[in-house]
From TrEMBL:
PROSITE patterns: GNAT. This is GNAT family N-acetyltransferase. One of its GO terms (molecular function) is acyltransferase activity. Keywords: Acyltransferase, Transferase. The keyword Transferase applies. It comes from Dyella lutea. It holds the Pfam family Acetyltransf_1. Its EC number is 2.3.1.-.
Amino acid sequence: MALAIRDVREHDLDAVLALNNTAGRSILAIDAAQLRYFYDHADYFRVAEIDGQIAGFLIAMREGGAYGSPNYRWFSGRYPQFVYIDRIVIANAFRRHGLGRIFYCDVISYAEVRVPLLACEVFLEPRDDVVVLFHGTYGFQEVGQQRMGEDGPQVSLLARELPSFGYVRDTYLEHGGLPDVPWLAERLARPSQSPA
């Protein structure tokens, strides 16, 4: 079994959309336009590919975006710098094989050299204790709760401090930036984005 975690490519989007919309009640369905927004604007959008098949994906956004998610806006109103995990989806055939842990290690590696906080939410309706415990094992703690819209589910808003960020900020970010190596590189700007 050959596993690769890599940035999403445009030709992956149909498979990612199908995977998202068959994930069940704990992942909100999206349409092609919403997925295109993520493709164009997400700071972290990676897929797990196993033997040529998309087995999962994780999408995360930095602070300062125009993303309309009420949970993203909640964190935006309280924290100046963060990476917000919007969604992680693993295909049914590949669940309970450690892909979630691999993605979380990868997104933590991405975030800890850029921001002091990693954020996400978990649904409390329906409550999934496996998901709650999973986040606890990665050091996430509840920092709030809210209901997503009038009739939406109650969510627990979680955050994990990234203690290595202070060292990275003081050593690199305030003195010329991160080293120019592939594993620290940002996603390339999409055609509809202006370069940063």
